[in-house]
Amino acid sequence: MNAPKPVPKPYLIRTALEEILADLVEGDPVPSERDLAAQFAVARETVRQAVHELLVEGRIERRGRGTVVSKPKLIQPLSLKSYTEGAQTMGRKPGRLLVGWEDVDPTPELAAALEIESGQQVMRLERLLLADDQRIGLESTYLPKHRFGHFTETFDPETSLYAAVRAAGVVFGAAVERIETVLASPREAELLESTTAMPMLRLNRRSVDTEDRPIEVVRSLYRGDRVAFEALLTDR
Asked: Where in this chain does the record put each HTH gntR-type domain (predicted)?
């Protein structure tokens, strides 16, 4: 019978760290890597690996020169609700920062998804998504210009786009959404105040109205350490 394999030291340190975090609350400082290495009599590299895992999971975060306990992740529902509604449900303050808003020539794939003819442009709206003033996501929305061109004059990009669509008399009917784990580009990481090594959640959505006419194609990139998603599943 083979002897059991020894438990890796980083796992033991991570377990000990989780016990420490259980007694702390949001914003409390976490012991430094040097102090933890001395406390558990291990190399700082061993501590650093365990700390990195907790950073990636969003349990802790860097603030200045120190590390503190993070806020709980923002839980977003997988539904036809807007990001605003999801944030408000959790008691968080939603916000948006405009990155860019322009008319662009669509790729053949985008033109097909929005069911527009060759030569027609689409509106591209790129915004940073905030929760309690933290940057949590980067969203690029493509809208058929022939249908929503008036938004250029009437829509405030720091407010809910879905509310504006509904106010225009358009009713969301259905959407197909795909979620993948990716790494951010250098530009995306900078906008999200993150790094290219931090895992991101990428959502690709195509929404249609109740008459099956395309409303939008959206590509959203969320920080995996700050956001999680959930869905209600039922067989009824």
From this structure: 6-72
